[in-house]
Amino acid sequence: MTAAIIEEVLVGLADPMRRRILDTLASPGGGTATTLAAELPVSRQAVVKHLAVLDRAGLVVGRRSGREVRYLVRPDRLAATAQWMAGVAVEWDVRLQGIKRLAESMEGGT
Questions:
Q1: Number of independent structural domains in the chain
Q2: Looking at the whole model, is its pTM more than 0.90?
Q3: Residue 94's domain is classified under what CATH number?
Q4: How far is it, in rounded angstroms, from Cα 62 to Cα 30?
């Protein structure tokens, strides 16, 4: 997963309303901008803008159904980002353990 893709996903997830939209879309069948706006405290136009950000991040996909576009969550990008974050967490744990050992060895030497 490239740094640009990770950045797009993190930007998509950064906004609380976009996270609410993803949560709402996670239900079976997804939803449209109209149905989302009916459930959320924002206008349909705001939902459409948030969906565009989520689409660019690869977190949702829109499928035309007649006159409507039905959006569904794409879990693959979420899973890949979670895997990347887990790897970063492991790296930081290793670094912090090294700092802890160094601090303890210095403490014991004084």
A1: 1
A2: no
A3: 1.10.10.10
A4: 10
